[in-house]
Amino acid sequence: MIIEARSQAGISRRQLARLAGTSPSTLSAYEEGRSIPSVVTLQRILTAAGFRVDASLVAVDEAEHRRRGEALASLLDLADAYPRPARQELAFPLVASMVVP
Predict the structure, then answer these.
(1) pLDDT higher for 96 or 38?
(2) For range 93-99, the mean pLDDT
(3) In this structure, is residue 87 part of a structural domain?
(4) DSSP annotation string for the chain
(5) What is the CATH number of the domain that holds 42?
(6) Into how many domains does the chain fold?
(7) pLDDT band at 87, cuts 50/70/90?
(8) Is 70 inside any structural domain?
(9) What local confidence, expressed as pLDDT, does residue 46 receive?
């Protein structure tokens, strides 16, 4: 969303960072998904790019919610049925300095 707003505004990352009151490296982290801005920060960045944030609440469709839950349960059942290799017991080497006399 930030990349799209910056692109449509025709400004550089450095310019948008300055306008939004943040650093170019922070803006880069948001754009690349290495960090997630708060709602307030996202609104500030998008406003600096010349956009307004418009959000609305939409009720969850109970039937869709149930269908996704059943699909997830089926997937987990399939994963449980998949054969797994036997796990070997972990063996840690005994270190002389760890031996208590």
Answers:
(1) 38
(2) 62
(3) no
(4) -HHHHHHHHT--HHHHHHHHTS-HHHHHHHHTTSS---HHHHHHHHHHTT-----------HHHHHHHHHHHHHHHHHHHHS--PPPPPP-PPPPGGG---
(5) 1.10.260.40
(6) 1
(7) confident
(8) yes
(9) 96
